[in-house]
Amino acid sequence: MSAVVAMDGPAGAGKSTVARRVAQALGFTLLDTGALYRTVALAAVRRGIGFDDAVAVTALAEELVAREALVLEALPDAGMDVRLEGERVGDAIRTPAVSMGASTVSAIPGVRAALLDAQRTFAAHAGVVCEGRDIGTVVFPDATLKIFLTASTDERARRRHSELVAREGARAPTFEATRAEVEQRDAQDQSRAIAPLRKADDAVLVDTTGLDFDAVVARCLELARARNLPRDQAGIG
Ligand code: DC
Predict the structure, then answer these.
(1) Does any domain span residue 20?
(2) Which of 126, 160, 188 is the last residue of a domain?
(3) Range of the domain at 91
(4) pTM of model > 0.85
């Protein structure tokens, strides 16, 4: 395994943007694991499969992985996209409906199992910053550095809401609806039986409430330097 920076935390803590900038700074590849669960949810919608039909969604995830119809694609500048049946689905997987669906399908053990190898394979050859919910606890328990990024519920709802407004303008949900969605997803992600969101014992907690983006990135890079990252990737476990 190459060097891995595991970045876990709840929705809206700023993981995606921070992980991308940290990956750029370290010269690492970004692995956004939430995009995988989102893509399974999108595929379920397209096939008319209910998110809570565990048997059908598991079979779907297994089939997509086996056929290589769900493929992670590293883009220049630490970008990442997912292809579903050859189509880039970067935008289609960001709608509120797919977000809730991703949260539901990610609680299905068979879905998590189907996606595990894809995540590990991605990190086999190059340094990665891997962001998700269970990276430090399940996917890469031996990660070089584990960061648990969090922020208060209000702050996370505010950030999520501004993202939605920037993307959808007047069609964006209200702040109250966004906050309710953040709370509902938190509850679902933390209370599920399999791989619930929790900080690994050896993860460093970074609370981003009231910190600006650059300060959060600087803190993560300081932690990376303390672990001697980046470094020559060849054969480092
Ligand atoms: O990070 P995100 O919002 O794109 O994640 C979408 C959903 O996928 C989220 O509700 C939790 C789930 N998820 C997960 O269970 N495990 C991961 N490693 C990443 C995401």
Answers:
(1) no
(2) 126
(3) 29-126
(4) yes
Q: How far is CA 152 from CA 9, 15, 198, 216, in A?
A: 12, 14, 15, 15
Express each pLDDT in 85-123 by its tens digit: 999 999 999 888 999 899 899 999 999 999 998 899 888
Q: Is the pLDDT of residue 232 over 70?
A: no
Atom of ligand 1 nearest to the CA of 99: 6
State pLDDT tens for residues 120-146.
988 887 899 999 999 999 999 999 999
User: Both 41 and 120 in a single domain?
Assistant: yes
Q: What atom of ligand 1 comes closest to residue 192's alpha carbon?
A: 15
State whether the beta carbon of 145 lies less than 6 angstroms from ligand 1: no
**Cα distances (Å, whole numbers) of residue 15 to 89, 154, 174, 198:** 20, 16, 22, 15
Model pLDDT for residues 20-32, shown as the tens digit of each residue = 999 999 999 999 9
- Distance in angstroms (rounded) separating the CA atoms of residues 41 and 163: 21
